[in-house]
Design goal:
The chain is an alpha/beta fold. The protein has two domains: 411 residues, Alkaline Phosphatase, subunit A, CATH 3.40.720.10; 73 residues, Arylsulfatase, C-terminal domain (2-Layer Sandwich). Helix content is 25%, strand content 20%. It is built from 13 helices and 19 strands. The strands form four sheets. Strands 1, 2, 3, 4, 5, 8, 10, 13, 14 and 15 form a ten-stranded mixed β-sheet that branches. Strand 11 and strand 12 form a beta hairpin. Bound molecules: calcium ion.
Length: 499
């Protein structure tokens, strides 16, 4: 295989800024810093619960790409994720956490700006959010302005998988002091992929490969190695380290040993129901025909490969968490693990993202570390990924910019059973109509602890209502049931209010 050295990009400007910091007597490390080039920091001392000044907390912000809640700690009967389970054991696992848009870039921009897609204007994988919001203070940028070193390894803002592996993609320059773009053996072995849907681009094809070699040779293995190296380099100053794994995004590539953990005969496909999609609006299903016409055997092989990738990512997260412990950083580092959106693996004959069904909108979310009183507990309140921005600002004692759309989850980290009145909103785009009348529309969905209600084009293209207390698989659309008219009205009022 070809050995590729990840590009560590520290530009001249950063060295100059680091030099000026040195002149000012500040401690600048070998990685450089651009803190001096930024607007003056609003220096707020982090506060402990008692209001006393406390040492600055670090942030380890770990993203996975296209990861659904198929994890041991979320009760999955087959998938093994011992390291994420360990993280969940020392923090809070959010059972009802939702993305704001089930597609990479719109979701990631929403997380990193703390704003809803309607404000960021990013609803595709090509728009740069700075072209719309030039002055937004992105989450890592807030930390930089407060004296933190912000570093990124791998995919945080969007880059196309697998085409842009090893590049910065739609990265945001001012978010980071340090950027590392690993590229591994998987990129060189695309010719070995088995592709069940050859007419689809590789980035959204059902394609997979059980590879030879070690975890460390894979792009995500290198992401973990570089993250460990950065933890060692940054340990003496407050840091915001963002670690972006891009698995289990397709193509599902992982070393063979991870496939071996999932014998084909143990992998079950979701239950199917006669007439499941007959009561949903025409625009609701993203995958047409269901399962792209694939048979059970192919679908099972794809799900198995996806599970192998989940275990592979889990092992890489474990390596990073081990380093955090070894370096004595765990007690002063807030760890967040999240996925940019959920993923369907055959539910309703649907795959991947871009749907407003539960499995596409729901994400795994784990938060652990200092300031988090509840350890190993689950929280059933509806929360949104855009809550992460105000949460991290709050936990680290930084003043968040005005106008963020989320709320700090700190009260729920202290008491996961606490009352919470915020529902979760998710939206997606669709083409509706035929021929010349074809137009772009929005689907918008609200999730409360009991209900999911989805409006397509403000209801003109249909409405869905599901009762998760009785129907967690969203089999029966109740939107036209007269007995549920009041619930539909209430939910639509929430959608109209935007919250
Ligand atoms: Ca994604």
């Amino acid at each position: 295989m070809r050995s590729t050295r990840p590009a560590l990009r520290v530009r001249r400007l950063r060295f100059l800024a680091a030099a000026s910091l040195c002149l000012l007597g500040a401690a600048a490390g070998t990685l450089g810093s651009r803190a001096a080039a930024q607007a003056p920091a609003r220096a707020l001392a982090p506060r402990s619960a008692e209001g006393q000044a406390s040492p600055k907390r670090n942030v380890l912000f770990i993203a996975s790409d296209d990861l659904t809640c198929a994890l041991g700690c979320y009760g999955h009967p087959l998938v093994k994720t011992p390291h994420l389970d360990r993280l969940a054991g020392r923090g809070v696992r959010f059972e009802r956490a939702y993305c704001q848009f089930p597609l990479c870039s719109p979701s990631r921009v929403s997380v990193l700006t703390g704003l809803r897609p309607e404000k960021t204007g990013v609803r595709d994988n090509s728009t740069r959010f700075r072209s719309i919001l030039p002055d937004a203070v992105a989450l890592p940028q807030l930390f930089r302005r407060n004296g933190y070193r912000a570093a990124r390894v791998g995919k945080l803002y969007h880059y196309g998988v697998p085409s842009q592996i090893g590049t910065s993609g739609l990265d945001d320059d001012v978010s980071w002091d340090v950027i590392v773009n690993p590229r591994g053996r998987d990129k060189d072995e695309e010719g070995l992929l088995r592709n069940l849907t050859p007419k689809r681009g590789l980035g959204s094809a059902l394609a997979f490969h059980a590879t030879e070699g070690s975890d460390e040779e894979q792009t995500d293995g290198k992401v973990a190695s570089e993250a460990i190296r950065l933890l060692e380099a940054l340990r003496d100053r407050p840091f915001f380290l963002a670690v972006g794994f891009f698995r289990p995004h397709t193509p599902y590539v992982a070393p063979r040993r991870h496939f071996d953990g999932y014998p084909l005969d143990k992998v079950a496909l979701p239950e199917t129901f006669e007439g499941d999609l007959e009561d949903v609006p025409e625009v609701a299903p993203w995958v047409q025909p269901p399962n792209w016409g694939l048979g059970r055997q192919d679908c099972t092989a794809a799900v198995r490969a996806y599970y192998a990738c989940v275990s592979f990512v889990d092992a890489q997260v474990g390596r990073v968490l081990d380093a955090l412990e070894r370096l004595g950083l765990a007690e002063r580092t807030v760890v967040v693990f999240w996925s940019d959106h959920g993923y369907l693996l055959g539910e309703h004959g649907q795959w991947m993202k871009m749907s407003l069904f539960e499995g596409s909108a729901r994400v795994p979310l784990l938060i652990a570390g200092p300031g988090i009183e509840a350890r190993g507990e689950a929280c059933g309140r509806t929360v949104e990924l855009l809550d992460l921005y105000p949460t991290l600002a709050d936990l680290c004692g930084l003043e968040a910019p005005p106008g963020l759309d989320g709320a700090s989850l700190r009260p729920l980290l202290e008491d996961p059973a606490r009352a919470w009145s915020r529902p979760a909103l998710t939206e997606v785009t669709r083409k509706a109509g035929q021929g010349k009348r074809k137009k772009d529309i929005l689907g918008r969905s609200v999730r409360t602890e009991r209900w999911r209600c989805t409006e397509w084009d403000e209801g003109r293209e249909g409405i869905e209502l599901y009762d998760h207390e009785r129907d967690p698989q969203e089999r029966r659309n109740l939107a036209r049931d007269p007995g549920h008219a009041r619930v539909v009205e209430e939910m639509r009022a929430v959608l109209r209010a935007g919250r």
